[in-house]
Specification:
Blueprint: E1 14-17, E2 24-28, E3 39-43, H1 45-62, E4 69-72, H2 77-93, E5 100-105, H3 113-123, E6 129-133, H4 135-142, H5 148-159, H6 164-183, E7 187-189, H7 194-206, E8 216-219, E9 222-225, H8 233-239, H9 241-249, H10 257-272, H11 276-291, E10 298-299, E11 306-307, H12 313-324
Parallel strand pairs: 1-3, 4-5, 4-7, 5-6, 7-9
Antiparallel strand pairs: 2-3, 8-9, 10-11
Helix pairs in contact: 1-2, 1-8, 7-10, 7-11
Length: 338
C-alpha cells in the first residue's frame, strides 16, 4: 500500500437526486480529470427500467438478433428486464412478436412453480409465446428415459448438493437449444448479468485458461446471447425490487464455496472502484477479439454436450456415461466418449 496515493480515492461524492424516492445509486467517478468532481446519482425504479430496457434493446440491435428466438425467463429481475427490453426492440424494429418464445422451467427445489407464475404474468399482453416446462415436459423435449428429477438426484449424490447451480445452468442451456430447434431459431437470450460474466472471467484467468466468448457465445448450433452482461445485479434488482426479493427467498440454500468466493470478488471490484469490472471485461474482450484468443467449445460426438478440453478425461468419461443412461438418443461410442 505504500505506493498508493490514497488522496486519489474519492472522499467526497456530490449527490444528485433524480427522484424523491430513489432505490439505487449510480456512481460517476472521474479519475481521469484534474480536480475531479465525483458524483453519485440517486434513481428510482422507473428511471432504472428506462435505462436498462434501452440498453437491452440497443444490444439486440447491435447484434442483429432476429426472430424466431428463445428467451429463458426465471421470474426474477434479470430476465424480467430482458422481456421488457425485447418488447422495446421488437416494436422499434417492427418484428413479429409471436416469433419470440419465452420459457420457464419448473423443477423443485431448483426452480419453483411460483416463479413460473410471475414469468407468465410478465409475458402476458406483449404477444410473446410463453411455455412453462414441468419435469415431464423437460423429459419429453429432451428425449429423456427418466425424469430430470431423477437425474438431479444422481448428480447430487455423486457430486454433492453444491453442484446445483452448475446442473441448473447446463439444463437451461440444453432446454433453450432444444426449443430453438423446435421453432427454427438460432438465438437463446439468457439473463447473465455483469457479476455473472465477471465471475466466470476471473475463474478462467485465475486458472490460466482462455475465457469463453461473451456477450455472444456459440453453443452447438445456437448463439447464446447475454443482453444484460454489462448491467450490475443491483440495478437489475432495483428495476423490480419486490419481484427480486421474492425470487431470492425461493432460492435453495446451497452453492459451491469456490463459486461463492469468485462471485464475492466480482461484486467487490465495483464496490472498491465503480466500473472497474467493465474496464476489465471490455479490455479482455477486445484483447481476445484481436488475438482470436477465445476458448473454444468442442462437441462430444453423438451428444449435444460441449467441453473446453480442461478437466480429467476419466472424470469426464464417467459423467458422460452417467448422462447417456438418461438420454437414450445420444450415441456415444464405448471407446472414446469425448
Amino acid at each position: 500500500m505504500r505506493n498508493t496515493d490514497v488522496e486519489l480515492l474519492p472522499f467526497t461524492l456530490h449527490t444528485q437526486e433524480h427522484s424523491a424516492d430513489p432505490v439505487a445509486a449510480m456512481y460517476d467517478l472521474r479519475y481521469a480529470e484534474k480536480d475531479p468532481e465525483h458524483r453519485v446519482h440517486l434513481l428510482d425504479d422507473d428511471q432504472l427500467r428506462e435505462i436498462v430496457f434501452t440498453k437491452i434493446a440497443d444490444f439486440l440491435s447491435v447484434y442483429r438478433v432476429t426472430p424466431p428466438l428463445v428467451a429463458g425467463i426465471s421470474g426474477g429481475g434479470d430476465s424480467s428486464s430482458i422481456v421488457r427490453g425485447l418488447v422495446r426492440y421488437v416494436s422499434a424494429e417492427e418484428l413479429c412478436s409471436d416469433q419470440v418464445l419465452c420459457f420457464t422451467v419448473v423443477l423443485d427445489p431448483l426452480w419453483r412453480g411460483t416463479a413460473a407464475n410471475r414469468a407468465r404474468d410478465l409475458c402476458e399482453g406483449y404477444g410473446f409465446g410463453h411455455r412453462v416446462l414441468h419435469p415431464e415436459d423437460i423429459a419429453s423435449l429432451l428425449g429423456m428415459s427418466a425424469s430430470p428429477e431423477a437425474l438431479w438426484r444422481e448428480i447430487r449424490s455423486t457430486y454433492g448438493a453444491d453442484a446445483s447451480h452448475f446442473f441448473g445452468t447446463w439444463l437451461l442451456n440444453l432446454v433453450g437449444r432444444a426449443l430453438n430447434r423446435e421453432i427454427g431459431g438460432s438465438s437463446l437470450l439468457m439473463g447473465y448479468n455483469r457479476e455473472d460474466v465477471m465471475a466466470e472471467l476471473l475463474f478462467c484467468l485465475m486458472n490460466g485458461r482462455r475465457p469463453l466468448p461473451y456477450p455472444k457465445r456459440r453453443t452447438g448450433d445456437v448463439d447464446c446471447l447475454m443482453p444484460v452482461w454489462d448491467v450490475p445485479k443491483v440495478l437489475l434488482d432495483s428495476c423490480y425490487p419486490q419481484v427480486s426479493e421474492v425470487n431470492y427467498s425461493e432460492r435453495i440454500d446451497s452453492t459451491a464455496p469456490r463459486r461463492s468466493s469468485i462471485y464475492y470478488q466480482a461484486h467487490a471490484l465495483d464496490a472498491i472502484v465503480p466500473q472497474m469490472s467493465m474496464s476489465l471485461m471490455t479490455g479482455v474482450r477486445d484483447l481476445m477479439d484481436s488475438l482470436n484468443g477465445w476458448e473454444t467449445l468442442e462437441a462430444i460426438d453423438g451428444t449435444p454436450l460441449l467441453h473446453t478440453g480442461h478437466g480429467d478425461p476419466e472424470e469426464r468419461k464417467a459423467l458422460v456415461n452417467m448422462l447417456v443412461r438418461y438420454f437414450p438418443d445420444w450415441s456415444v461410442g464405448e471407446a472414446d466418449p469425448q
